[in-house]
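Predict structure. Chain length: 324.
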Amino acid sequence: MSLRDIYERTFDEDVHNGEQSGPACPECGGIVHTNSIETACEDCGLVVEDRPIDHGPEWRAFDDDERDRRKRTGPPLTPTRHDRGLSGEIGFDRTDANGTTLSGQKRHQLARLRREHRRGRWSSKAEQNLAHGLTEVRRIVSALDLPRSLRDQACQLHRTATEEDLIRGRSVEAMAAASVYAACRCAGLPRTLEEVGATSAVSNERVQNSYGVLNRELELPTVPMDPIEYVPKLISTLDVSPVTRQRAVTLARKVTTSGAANGCHPAGVAAGCVYQAAQEQEERITQAELADAAEVSVMTVRAQWKQLQTILDEPSSQSQRGNA
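Prediction complete.
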């Protein structure tokens, strides 16, 4: 018997057990068999099912001793990289996987491959600018000690600005800093523009201009910052008592409810509330210290403090009118 008779109508990976492995063929009613790839009819050749879904686990153990330390197939996609984390890197180790020292010829070959890999990492100038912008975003987020979730939001916002062609004619560093500040505004984190601009490589005016472009073109869901959010930061910077903190939060909530904080710098309003609370608790805090901590001028702190005193004097004046 020739080999052609064996492989005439079947594959070497077919599994034949003498019985029909599935239902009859829907076309001709013939015998259907299943191999490791597909389920097909032997008579008419109809493919009933192709590439079945693997319902097994996505993890695997690379060694018998690592059954308790299961590893997944790969890292998840991340918006912090220009290629979403799918690229690889050629390391600088002088040994291979077995610990054997590489020869000089092999090291020179790896150096050439590393150079060509670095040159071919970006397919265009726009992708290179995106990689540089995402690196700047990660640096600013690390300098400000912001959470990882906000870092991903800032990177995704910068990617969206690149896709919308908003970086054309503008600085990549300014747009990266503006993305971080916009992410803070959308998340409600008390970070001022001066704080973000201090860690950036450009001036605050350019960061503010780039943020205006992002807010206007992308219609960001930013809301006005609440002065209460700035009170814990000022309290921790000046190291005052918890009683003063609770009183400052109460005063900031009262100012916000009355509407006197509308159109004012939230950090300045918080500084005025902290100064009033410190005066009531007889703690020595100067307006200059509060201005430095809130990154506003001394005149702003003084003006907000006087406005707060006006709000506190209104109930007493109304009670006196009622008694009269």
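Summary: The first helix runs from residue 3 to 6.
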